[in-house]
Amino acid sequence: MRESKRKRLESKGWRFGTAAEFLHLSPEEAAYVELKAKLANNLRARRERKRLTQQGLARLVKSSQSRVAKMEAGDPSVTLDLLIRALLALGASNREIAKTISLSHGASAS
Amino acid sequence: MRESKRKRLESKGWRFGTAAEFLHLSPEEAAYVELKAKLANNLRARRERKRLTQQGLARLVKSSQSRVAKMEAGDPSVTLDLLIRALLALGASNREIAKTISLSHGASAS
DNA sequence: ACAGAATATATCAGTCCTGACATATTGTCA
DNA sequence: TGACAATATGTCAGGACTGATATATTCTGT
Fold first, then answer.
1. pTM for the whole thing?
2. How many whole angstroms separate alpha carbon A97 and alpha carbon A88?
3. Which residues of B touch A85 (CB under 8 A)?
4. CATH architecture of the region A3-102
5. Which chain A residues are Cβ-neighbours of B38 within 8 angstroms?
6. Tens digit of pLDDT for each residue in A35-59?
7. What are the tens digits of pLDDT across the range A10-21?
8. The CATH classification of domain B26-102, taken from the options 1.10.260.40, 3.40.640.10, 3.40.50.2300, 3.40.50.1000
9. If you count residue pairs, one on A and one on B, with CB atoms under 8 Å apart, how many are there?
């Protein structure tokens, strides 16, 4: 990876031990990122299905529009805790959350 | 709930808006606590199956024995993030984690 | 192209979580 | 029972995350 790209990504909160790790995440890291992405996508799907704006969802979960945007983007500054709490606030059950996690990556949300 | 009991529980990190909320958690709160408990139980089961001590698991996940104990106890100071990262470090797949989450509460881990 | 709404990105002070450490309790085996 | 290992509980400084705010960018209809 080009040095400039690493710098740019690091400035956004993504961390790498070495440049080579970028496309060679450890299995745990990869699984973690994928998990987060699935929950993020599902959050957006649920919000849109309810025809809520990010602002509206922010009120519902007592957060802010900007943080909701970061949740849906799977931003590294957002924890699984926050994502899951938001999903629960939107009425998702644990079973539905589990289903989301098992879904093949890229599949649309229920 | 008696004031003394509330105080004691609050000192351990559990928070209540009012005393009445103790046995009447909101659906989200209940789901969150249950989710945490399932992951915590599964973590202990996986560790024991591998015949690791808490100390050993702590080294594996770069944490400490005391924090591992707290993870397995579902302590309020432990996030889902930490629990899930620990499970992934023990080799659990996202699908297995999802399965754990769907399992009926109290069931033993796979 | 323009205006207004929705979403994305940047920054930051305060809060919460973390690992580490100390210590207490429980479990186990002789 | 006593010695030792394992687990539980308490505390805390430092770092990570949060909501808020400001601003930029993208989207949508006209």
1. 0.85
2. 9
3. 28, 32
4. Orthogonal Bundle (1.10)
5. 94
6. 999 999 999 999 999 999 999 999 9
7. 666 666 554 434
8. 1.10.260.40
9. 63
